[in-house]
Design goal:
seven-stranded mixed sheet, 13 strands, 31% helix, 289 residues, Collagenase (Catalytic Domain)
Length: 289
């Protein structure tokens, strides 16, 4: 789940109590908590109670975008392309295939854009929360919500927001990247709850105009614990660029520290030289000179 963020703000994404509800739900804007700063490898990812997952023998799931619940300013072809890319990012790392269904009503996972009234998604009754404590008061900034694995397979995106498939071309300050939110919701549909790793796809915060579509080691470890690894997947190959970038960054930091140390040493030597030249010579030595 993800929520809308105003320009310069950070939006919080939280789930309803999954033990009572069949959906993940996005809430309003809140400050980023300081204690959610864990960005270390495997471990921060979480699952829903019971670790639900899809158990199709053929490991194939179909999806479709609603022909009627659409985003007015986005052409259907652009929406479908964004969804195709979002599903492919998960298919790269697990032995599951995601195929676009010809018929919307026959798809395992149904995606649509809906308006929210009083914190509730219009037309989304089939996966509304059963949590009595979820009164919708905190849903003003909701971006989307989704079902858990095999619980009707639906992703509902808030139609009132400024969805975009190209942040470079769409300069609206409140633009929300469709693929980023879709990829996050797909993670929920597959069985992942939120992660405490800030770089994770499943981290419960996102900023306006932020594009976050690449899975991290945290996302990969989590989803592979549920479904296993794609036989063609290699951690080394998949994260090669990330590893190289990190090594390059470490080298830059090392050089920066070395330059700082060298500058300090040169400054110390110069200071010592000045001090030495300013020490008055003994009277006896002056006479000899």
């Amino acid at each position: 789940m993800m929520s809308l963020c105003r320009s310069g703000d950070v939006a919080r994404l939280t789930a309803t109590q999954p033990a009572l509800a069949q959906t993940t739900m996005t809430t309003t804007l809140q400050p980023r908590p300081e204690d959610n700063n864990n960005d270390s490898g495997a471990g921060p990812f979480t699952f829903f109670p019971g670790k639900p997952r899809w158990t199709r023998p053929d490991r194939v799931l179909t999806y479709a975008v609603s022909p009627t619940a659409t985003a007015d300013h986005l052409p259907p072809s652009a929406v479908r392309a964004a969804l195709r890319s979002a599903f492919a990012r998960w298919a790269d790392v697990i032995p599951m295939r995601f195929l676009e269904a010809e018929r919307y009503d026959a798809a395992d996972i149904k995606v649509g854009f809906y308006l929210y009234t009083d914190g509730r998604c219009d037309g989304c009754a089939c996966i509304d929360s059963d949590d009595d404590d979820d009164d919708g008061d905190d849903c003003e900034g909701v971006l989307a919500h989704s079902s858990m694995p095999e619980k009707s397979g639906q992703i509902h995106l808030h139609a009132a927001h400024r969805w975009t498939v190209n942040l470079a071309a769409d300069t609206a300050p409140l633009a929300v990247d469709l693929e980023s939110v879709a990829a996050h919701e797909i993670g929920h549909v597959l069985g992942l709850d939120h992660s405490s790793s800030r770089s994770s796809m499943m981290y419960p915060f996102i900023s306006c105009r932020e594009r976050k579509v690449r899975l991290t080691t945290d996302d990969v470890h989590g989803i592979q614990e549920l479904y296993g690894a794609n036989p063609h997947f290699s951690f080394g190959a998949y994260f090669k660029q990330d590893i190289l970038s990190r090594i390059q960054q470490m080298k830059k930091e090392k050089k920066k520290k070395a330059r700082g140390s060298s500058f300090w040493q040169r400054g110390l030597a110069l200071t010592c030289a000045v001090i030495v030249t300013m020490i008055p010579l003994p009277l006896s030595l002056n006479k000899l000179l």
